[in-house]
Amino acid sequence: MLEILYQDEYIIAINKPSGLLVHKSFYARDAKVYAIQELRNQIGGQHVYPIHRLDRKTSGVLLFALDKEVLKIMNDRFATREVEKKYLAILRGWSPEELTIDYDLTNDDGIIQNAVTYFHRLQTTEIELAFNNKPTSRYCLVEAIPETGRMHQLRKHFKHIFHPILGSRPHGCNKQNKLWLEHFELIGMMLHAHQLIFNHPITNKPLILNAKINEEFSRVGTILNLDLNTYE
Fold first, then answer.
1. DSSP classification of residue 17
2. What are φ and ψ of residue 45, in 5° steps?
3. Can you spell out the DSSP letters for 57-124?
4. pLDDT in tens, 45-73
5. Smallest Cα–Cα separation from 134: which of 104, 179, 192?
6. What is the pLDDT of residue 29?
């Protein structure tokens, strides 16, 4: 059963599990289960329309419209940046305390698109895990707020500043991912859409939707001695 965070006659939001596709994708033709069909079945067969997307490996708040008119309203609000998305990510190394990454990205059609991400560092940690001839490894927890919505934007932006998201493939650190696979059996990606802030499409009432982190994110936080109580 999908965890429903909010539901009324116009919209519905879930806490999407990591590994679940939003809908059928050319890039993941092996998948048999999709968020759209699972949610539709769960609420009695009513059609649902995804308003935005999350990567397959990204967990967290995912918002759907229950009719096409509401879908158009919310698509327009996303396009005009009236919706704020907040993500939690565990990065390799100690990032700057805060930074706005303004770095253009190229999509699959070869088109260059402006992409902007603001983030601030929440916690730093260092554990006894030998890497690159050093006896310890450093990591940090950040909150990221993308101002644009490009494919794999956060993964690519954090790799660009040399602080890749732990577990990200292909836009990560292959050596770190291998290290964590061997030592901690980590196969997931430490990226979670923990909050969505917007005005309701019909009532215009302010809404703040929060999604708890999953067990894998929590487990990695424990290994790293991060305080994740606020997000569990």
1. P
2. 90, 0
3. T-EEEEEEESSHHHHHHHHHHHHTT-SEEEEEEEEES---SEEEEE--EE-TTS-EE--EEEEEEEEE
4. 999 999 999 999 999 999 999 999 999 99
5. 179
6. 61
Q: Where are the domains of the chain?
A: 3-224
Per CATH, the homologous superfamily of domain 3-224 is: Pseudouridine synthase (3.30.2350.10)
Rounded to an integer, what distance in angstroms lies between the CA atom of residue 205 and that of residue 47? 24
Q: φ, ψ for residue 230 (rounded to 5)?
A: -65, -25
pLDDT, tens digit (0-9, with 9 covering 90-100), for 73-100: 999 999 999 999 999 999 999 999 999 9
Burial (CB count within 10 angstroms: exposed 0-12, middle 13-18, buried 19+), residue 45:
exposed
55 is catalytic: yes
Q: Which of 8, 30, 55, 227 is catalytic?
A: 55
pLDDT digits (tens, 9 = 90+) for 120-142: 999 999 999 999 899 999 999 99
Using a cut of 0.85, tell me whether the model's pTM lies above it: yes
Q: What share of the chain is helix, strand, coil (3-state, %, to 5)?
A: 25, 35, 45
Question: How far apart (Å, rounded) are the C-alpha atoms in residues 31 and 22?
Answer: 11
Check: CB of residue 117 under 8 Å from CB of residue 153.
yes
Half-sphere CA count of 32, side-chain side, radius 13 A: 0
Question: Peptide bond before 170: cis, by omega within 30 degrees of 0?
Answer: yes
| Identity at 181, one-letter amino acid code | L
Write out the two tokens for 32.
């048999």
